[in-house]
Amino acid sequence: MDHxxxxxxxxxxxxxxxxxxxxxxxxxxxxxxxxxxxMSWIEFETPNLISxxxxxxxxxxxxxxxxxxxEELDSAFRAGHIPGTAFFGRGNEGASVGSAFCLKDxxxxxxxxxxxxxxxxxxxxxxxxxxxxxxxxxxxxxxRDGNFHMGYRPKNITQLISHIGTMVPIAxxxxxxxxxxxxxxxxxxxxxxxxTSSGDFHEGINFASVQKLPLVIIIDNxxxxxxxxxxxxxxxxxxxxxxxxxGIPGYxxxxxxxxxxxxxxxxxxxxxxxGEGPILIESITMRASGHSVYDKxxxxxxxxDMNLWLEKRDPxxxxxxxxxxxxxxxxxxIEDSHLKAxxxxxxxxxxxxxxxxxxxxGMENEIFAD
Length: 370
Hints:
Structural class: alpha/beta
Radius of gyration: 20 Å
Number of helices: 14
Helix content: 40-55%
Distance between the termini: 47 Å
CATH class: Alpha Beta
Strand order of the largest sheet: 1-3-2-9-10-6-5-4
């Protein structure tokens, strides 16, 4: 992409800019770039972020499919098909799809529990995801685990670990292996803002920084770490500022703009592949539901603020409106994409529910490898 065309105006960011930083207002048409001790606000225009109609429609189908899959799973949970609980990423679809879409087929994705879109964009079949939720044999763990505790080896997707901070050292290990093998491949991982408080996050990113590993770390900051508010989670004004301490580049972006996330991640992954070391991206979204299906989030969430984000920054609604208003696609093409996604998710659910449950006598097979 022509960066000069995309990055319209650039001006230095001052410490005072962060004293009253408003994620909703200040990131609408700007993103923050941090390099060494220099910080810059960069203005952009969204129409310049899309290169062709085919890619625009592909991204639309994937982001829409992500939501419809989770809606089908939510319905299945309430119908009793999913044991335990369930975690979904409503509001984070744009960041998940936009980032993983940049990965090459043989590059590693290390997602967490709100990154269904990353699984989908990387090529994880929807019926496999649903079979895993349902505890069926055709899921990636063959019924041994559930929820988003899954990976998909055919597409180089690692499985989630509940202690989210531990995902960064795993991604760092993968990136170290890629550098050692001189493959010129990068690794992409996600972590929540709450996970950055763990020691594993620091150890992993510090090692990656020192070794200049080909790693892109996305902080999915959805403004609530379970029931912990941001001001109780970290003292810095924005988590991207931590990149300066590690000596690596950083970006602060509006994660509800799928095209911006896609652009920044393409930029970051190219830097990583060239051996420029890890890159930290803070993607701001709004968690549009509880921590899990059992979470009574109205007890601690600012509902008025959340409704504002859902009205103006819902990633799918926002992308729908942009594509139509910009004339890139027609209203009919948008409707067809939604219909296609709904049909694909419904079919995946039907296939997954027909998958057999694993037999008890085989549950200990293939747990350990010689």
